[in-house]
Amino acid sequence: MHYYYDLLVNLDDTLWEFYEWEKEDAIIPVKKIPFVRISDASLQKILKYEVQFESEEVKKYQHKALVKNEENNPSFLLLSSTKNSLVIEIDEKGKIISRSKLLIEDENNVNELASSLKKTEFTLSIGKKIPVRHEFRQALAEKKIIQIELNTLVEKKDENKSAYLYYEWFGELETDFTNQIKKCKQELAKPYTLKMHDIASIIKISYKEQL
Question: For FRET with 14, which of 33, 87, 102, 167 sits at 20 to 30 Å CA-CA?
Answer without folding.
Answer: 33
